[in-house]
Amino acid sequence: MSTEQHPDSETGAGTPEGPRPGRLTAAAAIAAVEGLALVGGGLFMLVMGLMGKPDQPRQAVTGGVTLIALGIIPLVAARGLLLRRRWSRGPALITQILALPVAYMFLTSDGPAIPVGIVTAALAVTGLVQLVNPATAEALGVRGTGGTR
């Protein structure tokens, strides 16, 4: 497909005009917070693995690198949302959907992880609501069914 068919794919041309809706900014902020949390957790695991603190350092290093890689996805999606790139909605939606089972895992654990689960669930649900809102889709230039805007 050429840039004529998808003008915003490369240069950003064809980006909808007007101010960015608050819902879009909120969705970008939520994705950024989740991305930063993943990168922070990954860095923590990586450092602890390299220092030899866990029982299995190799597993901690692998987990840390994985979390950092996974954290980059919502960070890139957040930037795309702020720049009103149509493609960014998909990765942001997937991030929110994947956060729901993580929140459930924290909520069903004991003690100190429960507040983390509450925050994770609240962010995921709020992010989903913001991303599926018609105003957000319109701001990103996402077409409805049948090719209408």
Task: Give the key terms.
single chain; mainly alpha
Brief digest:
This protein has 149 residues and is mostly helical. 68% of the residues lie in helices and 0% in strands.
SSE inventory with pairings:
Elements: H1 22-51, H2 57-82, H3 89-107, H4 113-132, H5 134-140
Helix pairs in contact: 1-2, 1-4, 2-3, 3-4
Q: Could you describe the 3D structure shown?
A:
It is a single chain. This protein has 5 helices and no strands. It has 149 residues and is an all-alpha fold. Helix 1 (22-51) runs antiparallel to helix 4 and helix 2 packs across helix 3 (89-107). The longest helix has 30 residues, at 22-51. The chain is elongated. Residues 1-13 have low confidence and may be disordered.
By DSSP (H or I, 4+ residues per run), the number of helices equals: 5
From N to C, what is the helix and strand string?
Answer: HHHHH
Helix content: 55-70%
User: What is the terminal separation in angstroms?
Assistant: 20 Å
Number of strands: 0
- What fraction strand? under 5%
